[in-house]
Amino acid sequence: MISRLRADGYPVLAAANTLRGPAGDAAALRTVLDHVQGPKILVGHSYGGSVISTAAAGDEQVKALVYVAAFLPAPGETALELTDKYPGSTLPDALDPVTTTAPDGTTGTDLYIQQDKFRHQFAADVPRDRAELAAVTQRPIARAALEEKATTAAWKAIPSWGIVTTRDLNIPAAVQRFMAARAHARVTEVAASHSVAVSHPDLVTRVIEEAARATRTH
């Protein structure tokens, strides 16, 4: 996707996401947004949707939000709550929880996907070798991040696009449709796994560029 967007003349920045919690991750992203001048489009995948929904709030330079198999929480909602709103997610049975200890002695839990279940759960339509590499290099998300309530929803004020993945075993398609409809997002549905950006990069790129053209940011 990055190569395709750059080839079409769009500057791209893939900001780091530590997967620790929407508020903290959004604050970190906001420092990046403040550094990059000019109109911007934010693209969030999965939990990243929660992050961009917070980071973009009140930023007049963010012209569009693109949610790729992602969460669009309303204030007071959590990612975990939304995942369970409709049946279909098999993620809980595929997780490998790891206890962590912070420098101050407090403990928490990081969540990985079990490597032998990763492809089926997360990337069923991705070539096996690439899925296996992703399983090995995956970064964990803090359980607390999935339980943290959203405090704002930028999609209420910023035009949004959504890619709904109908074969998603992480965030059920019914959940994605509910959130996208509530946000009045322009929706593209595709028979894809949660790793749609890897399995269908042309489609995801097309939706991002559609958002760019619609908001005159190119």
UniProtKB/TrEMBL annotation:
Pfam families reported for this sequence: Abhydrolase_6
SUPFAM superfamilies: alpha/beta-Hydrolases
Domain AB hydrolase-1: 22-205
One of the record's GO molecular function terms: catalytic activity
InterPro entries: AB_hydrolase_1, AB_hydrolase_fold, Sec-Metab_Biosynth_Hydrolase
Protein name: AB hydrolase-1 domain-containing protein
Native organism taxonomy: Bacteria, Bacillati, Actinomycetota, Actinomycetes, Kitasatosporales
